[in-house]
Design goal:
Layout: E1 21-25, H1 29-41, E2 45-50, H2 54-63, E3 68-70, H3 73-77, E4 84-87, H4 94-103, E5 107-111, H5 118-131, E6 135-138, H6 145-155, E7 162-170, H7 188-204, E8 207-216, E9 222-231, E10 236-242, E11 251-255, E12 258-262, E13 272-276, E14 282-285, H8 296-308, H9 318-335
Parallel strand pairs: 1-2, 1-4, 2-3, 4-5, 5-6, 7-10
Antiparallel strand pairs: 7-11, 8-9, 9-10, 11-12, 12-13, 13-14
Helix pairs in contact: 4-5, 5-9, 7-9
Length: about 350
């Protein structure tokens, strides 16, 4: 049945979010947005940052008023009273860095993707269980108000039987961008493609059938991938990602009772429209297009889990992250994509 109004986002109560003491590993582009979001939200405390380039790391620390800067993960893990580590290193460092931080008994938030493949992800899960600490993939869109509303609509069956999901995520990158670097596990799947697969799985569950076609970039990494996923419910997901050009970045979820259209980049903050299939009823979700300012939601949820003594996120569990990696493993198998670390 078409709802009379949209649900209210389910977010943790501010009083239930402890102020964790965070260390950042990898003072790069996404870490800049993470630090800024945490500083603006004001709940979490950044106490240390580590990066291979000492000058860059010190400048990062000064910019964001972080008291300690160092040049190695070992130094970061030796910081007293450190509660959590945010890992924002290149993709092929997520697994070794995350594993070392978990072995040190720290709660760990790892930038997406959790690891290069499902086998690495399973090792991270096993170590987190051994240490009885929280390990979570920073798929930041999952923790935003917009995605909370979408999950509730899907759980309530407001769209009826789901038949089709169509989504794209393409961006133009210059040839010198690290996304074209095979030594950094470059290519479109781990960067842009992970948003598409995560979105399709949130909507329809794990795929039961996968068909993929791709195109390499001149550097040898995968430059474009098109995927058809079929889910247990019968829903089809039609997904495309490319590094060669900018695409609209929209998504459509079509059901028997209603259709949701997310304009712009579907994973980012912004609005969507839900329209009934048989009449003119329509609901709109509207919010500021404040993009990476909403990164604080993943940190807030992470801190809430720690405060509740929860060692696996109820919003993005490690099993969910592993299913996404398993799906990407199969897409890569079909496209012949092998990372250097897997050879």
């Amino acid at each position: 049945m078409f709802p009379s109004s949209l649900p209210v986002p389910h977010l943790p109560e501010p009083d239930a979010i402890p102020a964790l003491r965070w260390g950042i590993l990898g003072p790069g582009w996404i870490a800049e947005h993470f630090a800024k979001a945490l500083q603006q939200a004001g709940r979490q405390k950044l106490v240390a940052v580590a990066g291979r380039n000492g000058e860059k790391t010190r400048a990062f620390a000064d910019k964001w008023a972080i008291p300690q800067a160092m040049t190695s993960l070992d130094e970061l893990l030796a910081v007293r009273d450190l509660d959590a580590v945010y890992i924002a290193t290149p993709h092929n460092h997520h697994f070794p860095d995350g594993l070392k931080a978990l072995q040190a008994g720290k709660h760990v938030l790892i930038e997406k993707p959790l690891a290069l493949n499902a086998a690495e992800g399973a090792q991270l899960k096993a170590e987190a269980r051994r240490q009885k600490v929280l390990c979570m993939e920073a798929m930041w869109c999952d923790f935003t108000p917009k995605y909370s509303v979408l999950r509730q609509l899907l759980a309530d069956g407001a769209l009826g039987e789901l038949h089709t999901l169509i989504a794209d995520h393409g961006e133009f990158f210059t040839p010198d961008h690290r996304i074209f670097n095979a030594d950094l596990a470059g290519g479109t799947m781990l960067d842009l493609g992970s948003y598409l697969i995560a979105f399709s799985m949130m909507t329809g569950g794990a795929p039961t059938f996968i068909q993929a076609s791709g195109q390499p970039a001149k550097s040898g990494v995968n430059g474009q991938a098109s995927m058809l996923l079929q889910h247990k419910s019968g829903m089809h997901s039609v997904l495309n990602t490319t590094l060669f050009s900018n695409t609209p970045g929209r998504a459509v979820i079509a059901g028997s009772e209603a259709t949701i259209v997310l304009e712009g980049q579907f994973y980012a903050p912004g609005g969507f429209v839900m329209a009934a299939s048989q009449d003119n009823r329509m609901l709109r979700w509207q919010e500021p297009d404040n993009r990476y300012a909403q990164l604080h939601h993943e940190a807030d949820h992470f801190a809430w889990c720690v405060g509740q003594g929860i060692t696996d996120s109820p919003v993005r569990s490690l099993d969910t992250s592993l299913l996404m990696l398993t799906t990407m493993d199969e897409v890569r198998r079909q496209l012949g994509i092998v990372f250097n670390e897997e050879k």
